[in-house]
Amino acid sequence: MGQYLAFDIGGTTIKYGVVHGDQTITDRGVLPTQHNADGAILKALKSITMQVLTTQAIDGIGVSTAGIVGRDGAIQYAGPTIPGYQGTPIKAALADLSHLPVAVVNDVDAALLGEQAGGAAQGRDDVYCVALGTGIGGAYYRHGQLISGAHGTGNSVGYLNYDVSSATNYEQRAATLSLEAQLKSQGVSVIEAFEQAKAGHEPYTAIITAWAQTVATGLAPIVLLLDPEVVVIGGAVSKQGQYLLDLLNPALDQLLPVGLRQTELRVAALGNDAQLVGAVAPFLTAITKK
Length: 290
What we know:
Elements: E1 3-9, E2 13-20, E3 25-32, H1 40-53, E4 60-65, E5 68-69, E6 75-77, H2 90-98, E7 102-106, H3 107-118, E8 126-132, E9 136-142, E10 145-146, H4 170-174, H5 176-183, H6 190-198, H7 204-226, E11 230-234, H8 241-253, E12 264-267, H9 273-284, E13 288-289
Helix pairs in contact: 1-2, 3-9, 6-7, 7-8
């Protein structure tokens, strides 16, 4: 079955662990990205790789990372969240260091692959993932392939639905960061607001219902254009489970012709482990990128 070193690189931390063939994870750790000062991220990946290789046999290395990953396993595009990250040759550097096969995938792609391998989309062959967080990311898996477009920039769903009058796009209106900003005047966190809404307390019910309707405006084009079997909702807000689905399903149905939608909405099941499992999924199953 093998065992694989997996990394998950975010804006502030690098999580890592050894993923076994049965998808259990051992030897976990976490490091700060240090805002990638002086190439801190790649240095950390190399350091952890050498530490792990001195203690156990590893069959491959998988990396889940923020940013758009080029077909050469380097960072093709990175926003301001991680300074100086664009162009980082992750795959080449780790392959040269370890002499092992290396897979590098975008973090939303990795979350989707993890959920498809052992989570909310397990066994489904046509799956879309929408990750709600500071921004909004998308990923599409179909018949053993990650579909990312001719230039690798497909599924940039956060930029959907640009509104000229407000100069905002989908993620600026629908990310959980936007919900957090709306709740600031109430002095509560997103988690606290959901608890208040579940208890039927206003204005939290109204605020969260309106936010869910905004989220649905980005899900509707995905359903209409791609008709996936399942859309998995990821990000920390997915922990709201059935309550979140009960908000999104009617909001989505209002935006679509009656009786057209067959796509099922599900919330992510693996939490933060989805990216670690998904990072090594290319070693566990035959996955290609198109």
